[in-house]
Amino acid sequence: MDHIPREFISLLLDKVDLVDLISARLPIKKKSANNFFACCPFHNEKTPSFSVNQAKQFYYCFGCGEHGNAIDFLMKYDHLGFVETIETLARQVGLEVPRTQHQEDKQDTTAPLYAITAEAAAFYQAQLKKSPRAIDYLKQRGLSGTIAKQFGLGYAPAQWEQLLQQFGDTAQNKQKLLQAGLTIKKEDGGYYDRFRDRIMFPIHDRRGRIIGFGGRIIDQGEPKYLNSPETPIFQKGQELYGLYQSLQANRKLNRLLVVEGYMDVIALFQHGINYAVATLGTATTPHHLHQLLRYTNEIIFCFDGDEAGRRAAWRAFEVVLPMMHDELQIKFMFLPEGDDPDTLVAREGKERFEEQLSKALTFTNFFFHHQLQQADLSSMDGRARFTAQALVYIKQLAPGVLQEMLLDELAKKARITAEQLKQQTGHTQSVSAKRIANGRQIKSQTTTPLRLALILLVQHPELAHHISEPLPELSLPAYPFFIKLIEICRQHPHLTTGGLLEFWREQKEEKLLAKLASWELVIPETGVKEEFLGAIRGLTRSAHDQVIQRMLAKAAQQGLSDEEKSQLTQLIADK
Ligand code: GTP
Ligand code: MN
Known about the structure:
Largest sheet: 6 strands, mixed
CATH superfamily of the largest domain: DNAb Helicase, Chain A
Bound molecules: guanosine-5'-triphosphate, manganese (II) ion
Distance between the termini: 49 Å
Shape: globular
Radius of gyration: 29 Å
CATH architecture of the largest domain: Orthogonal Bundle
Strand order of the largest sheet: 12-14-13-15-16-17
Number of domains: 5
């Protein structure tokens, strides 16, 4: 995304209208001058709680919390990547995306590879129709013709140069086959087909392009699966088998099931569970998780019930932990020994399988379950060790309801009070304080000047132009962020809330910004500008107080010079 100049993105957001964009896709009703409402496309609901503000160019769902600007909406709604979204929006308003050389080069080299993998997939599919042995195998595994077609299954014939003869007519084409990982170079210079006598599973990227293959042996033999090597268009640790089909089958993915095998995904789909993906023979990576979280906030990991499965689950847990937050649901399902999802769904059917899914261990339960396996709670020593170890993980969570829950649970298990535990973590914010902060309406008088200034500025970026005095120096955690916001708003006179948010895409302040943007303030009649300037005056007063406090501390510790003393007197008098 850093290939597209930021200025262009700002320009684009300035030209696109969020209300137009959304109303082209959803029925949307005008409520007041700037406010529109619709039924949220990102969760199921009957009464509209999805609000779109035209002035702010920002949408927010009071039901599920989805929010963002035009780019976010299109990414979510059309399942597009960032760059694709920019391209789509640019096309709509008749702008051309400025590209760096780097990106053009990359496109030129990969396009022929996508073409050759697509051709190879079609070839394998045609070969499947001619191979009764391969067809029988798939039938015997319980797959229907429809599902084989949906996943584009094929067959690579038992010969060394089929693909080569078919597509490798020129030196250039031979090179393409090699680059796409479909052939292997011999030591003496020739080539041969990588996949021979195997059932072929094409691997699609999110957009449906074929980027590689998995090939399963038909009878017994080693290796059972052969995968495409890493190529310019295929990185194993990033792709998820079945994601494309899951996206195709569901406008909105309420959840995604993560399993281990190709056959598991296909069998699940065949039995109506059309929201399953598999990693390609690797453990779950942060990259996988990041991908999944773009489409859903409920993920169920499915593992074997044995020791290896438990270990794999814990590895997945550790990947999830830093990305975990209150709105996410992560679950862990362990299969009965001897089963995999393929055999289980075939035997039990969709409903009973989903019933098992609903009984999967929650994030919290799995965490304690795992921690307790190695703990001894009968001694005080053991409990202290257990507490210390559990805290290592719990501290990695962002403060919030989930962290509170884990701390409460930990306290219960370790038989200490929640207060004692919170003292240990330096954790002070109570759940109730958090709840109030998350509430939708606050009165402008009941919050701190900085928070008020932040909310008002994010919701009305033009306010930045009304500050005439220099801003005070103040040491408060969010203050540098506020200064930065002011700076950006001043540099971009026409910025909307949605446009402002764009500057923080994928940065840690992104969530805070969205919260500020969706806050409903009750503003007194004097108006927004007066409130804002009042808040700025409040900041100046706080800065004053900080200086006084610092000088008083110094006076107590080392004494003040005469000059400082008179300064302090003056400061206190000013108050
Ligand atoms: P079936 O045995 O046909 O039911 O396939 P499966 O998809 O259930 O495979 P399994 O559970 O044995 O393995 C899970 C995943 O690990 C597979 O889908 C592959 O991605 C990967 N895998 C399994 N065996 C091999 C192998 O021999 N080599 C490689 N590279 N990957 C493998
Ligand atoms: Mn299997």
